Structures are given as C-alpha cells and as structure tokens.
Amino acid sequence: MSHSKSEEYQDKTSIILVVDDNQQNLELLQAYLEDLDCETIAASDGLEALEKVAKKMPDLILLDVMMPKMSGFEVCKKIKGDPKTSHIPVIMVTALNEFGDIERGLDCGTDDFLTKPINKLELITRVKTMLKLKHLTDKLERTLAYLSEIEKQAQMAKSD
C-alpha cells in the first residue's frame, strides 16, 4: 500500500474500508486496490465495519451484501442514516444480480454496485470515480462553510 500523494484529486491519502466475511475475498479486493494511492482497512462483519467507520471515517466503503450478524443492506442503512457518516460513498459488492437485491440496495442508500466475481479494472475505475466525487464534495462543503463565515463577518461589520 503506497502512501504518496496523488495531485489528481487528493490532498490526503484516501482510506477505503473493505468489508467481507470471506477472508479470500478481502485479500483479493485489498490486492486489487494496491495499485491505487490509498490505505485499505478491513472488516469481516457488519458490526466490525460500523466500529471502523466510527473510528477511521473512511473515504469509501466496499461492502459485501451477504454477511452473518448484519447484512450489507443493514450496515449501509445505518451508515447512510447517520448524519456524521451519510456522506461516505458505499459500493455494495454482491454475487446477487437479482433485481430485488439491487432495488433493496438502492433503498438502503448504496451509491453503486459491483458484481462478483470482481473485475479488477471495473473495481479500480469505480473506486477512482467515487473517491474523486467524494473529494470534490468535501472541497465544495469546505468552500461553502468558508463563504458562509465570510458572509457572517460582512454582516457583523455592516451592523457595527
């Protein structure tokens, strides 16, 4: 895992949380992501995933759908339902290609889907796109907060 900075769209190393109850799948996804300028962290079930999200605040989550204890759908719903984490993009990784599962994923707030077996190029492309979007959204939010602060200061200066 490299930690150098890519000037393309990042001002810090992106953190990607990979969640899968199958150790081989976890290792494969992490190996595929080694080509990217990011840090990967892993969780092997939904509860561990939620703990790591709270601790690390990842920039992207690759989330397996079928897991014991808590399904990917439930994990996604909790992440998207919490204002502190709702902005984190979630890509659901599924062997399921039933329309009902896709619909259920969209209902719980997922941002995208990847179907198993994972195609490395597709994974890398979608992850890059999601990270770029996340970093641009973060930058926009910082800019809007800054402008709002300047506006408040201007209003205070006027009223003095």
Protein described:
The protein has 5 helices and 5 strands. The protein has 160 residues and is α/β, with parallel strands linked by helices. Strands 2-1-3-4-5 form a 5-stranded parallel β-sheet, sandwiched between helices. The longest helix has 40 residues.
Mean pLDDT, as a whole number? 90
> How many structural units, i.e. domains?
1
Strand line-up in the sheet with most strands: 2-1-3-4-5
The counted number of beta strands is: 5
State the fourth-level CATH superfamily: Response regulator
Distance between the termini: 54 Å
Task: Enumerate the spans where pLDDT stays under 50 for 5 or more consecutive residues.
Answer: 1-10
Question: Using only CA atoms, what is the Rg?
Answer: 18 Å
CATH topology: Rossmann fold
CATH architecture term: 3-Layer(aba) Sandwich
- Percent of sequence in beta strands: 15-25%
CATH top level assignment? Alpha Beta
Give the ordered list of helices and strands: EHEHEHEHEH
What structural class should be given to the helix and strand makeup?
alpha/beta
What level of helicity do the residues show?
40-55%
How is the main sheet built? Answer: 5 strands, parallel
Q: What is the number of helical segments per DSSP (H or I, 4+ residues)?
A: 5
Shape: elongated
